[in-house]
Structure to design on (292 residues):
């Protein structure tokens, strides 16, 4: 990572971010990435108060995207942002070589940072995880943010490993998607003074803010950006509304449901890719009843 002051990092990478969905250009499952819709959606998000963008991540169906598609998504997001807010690109891949290659590409098209989850599926200890991040951080001058999502990756970035990574200057911050107050509180206490700490999991927004996280990364804000901008700005009365919406979306597959909510607002996001299921007629009726 290039030399960047702590104050600049903490100022630049703060606020309400969106883990953006990936639109596919037709209604067939597996359709091509629609970069025009990405750019239009990004501009709408920013006009409604979003302070940062996180493309090609968990919400963006990264596991079912080719590297070529990830590159197209990252480039289109940066183009749509037009420098108004930071873009932190997801660069997860099955190998460290491919993740590093994606990080280099993100830098070449003007992204502001990269998110990297832990290695997935096979158990990895602190030493393996350290070298995983090292391989990517050495390949780019962009700030690298560790992404802790053990409920899906099956590996955790431990506090001890994070100390090692920060001390080595390999990462600039950490995103935690556990939705656990004790974990986020520990991150803020250990690293919050000098490094960027993001909270995630939409039901955790108010709690994450109270604990002192620098920012929050939302999936639901894809369809309700103004709502989340107000929530992160301190309107805690909105958290029950978010919780109710989150509960509804999870019952029918959040990604497909969010895409449908965006379709209602004029953004043709298409279907989610297999193995995600299409929405039923009943699901659509429920989503049509939600005020946006």
């Amino acid at each position: 990572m290039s030399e960047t002051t702590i104050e600049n990092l903490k100022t630049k990478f703060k606020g309400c971010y969106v883990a953006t969905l990936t639109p596919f250009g037709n209604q067939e499952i597996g359709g091509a990435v629609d970069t025009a819709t990405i750019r239009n959606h990004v501009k709408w998000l920013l006009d409604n108060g979003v302070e940062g963008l996180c493309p090609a991540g968990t919400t963006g169906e990264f596991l079912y995207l080719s590297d070529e598609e990830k590159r197209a998504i990252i480039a289109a997001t940066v183009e749509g942002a037009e420098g108004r807010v930071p873009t932190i690109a997801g660069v997860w891949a099955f190998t460290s070589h491919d993740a590093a290659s994606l990080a280099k590409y993100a830098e070449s098209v003007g992204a502001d940072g990269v998110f990297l989850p832990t290695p997935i599926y096979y158990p990895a200890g602190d030493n393996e995880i350290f070298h995983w991040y090292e391989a990517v951080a050495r390949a780019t001058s962009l700030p690298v943010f560790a992404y802790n999502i053990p409920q899906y990756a099956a590996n955790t970035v431990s506090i001890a490993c994070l100390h090692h990574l920060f001390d080595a200057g390999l990462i600039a911050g950490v995103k935690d998607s556990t939705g656990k107050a004790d974990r986020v509180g520990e991150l803020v206490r250990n690293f919050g003074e000098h490094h960027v700490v993001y909270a995630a999991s939409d039901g955790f927004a108010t709690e994450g803010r109270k604990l002192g996280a620098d920012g929050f990364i939302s999936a639901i804000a894809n369809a309700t950006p103004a709502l989340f901008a107000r929530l992160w700005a301190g309107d805690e009365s909105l958290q029950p509304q978010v919780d109710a919406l989150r509960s509804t979306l999870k019952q029918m597959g959040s990604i497909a449901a969010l895409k449908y909510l965006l379709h209602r607002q004029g953004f043709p996001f298409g279907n989610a890719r297999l193995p995600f299921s299409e929405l039923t007629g009943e699901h659509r009726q429920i989503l049509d009843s939600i005020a946006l």
Remarks:
- The CA atoms of residues 144 and 171 lie 5 Å apart.
- The mean pLDDT is 95.
- Strands lie at 15-19, 52-54, 88-90, 113-117, 144-148, 173-176, 196-200, 215-218.
- The radius of gyration is 18 Å.
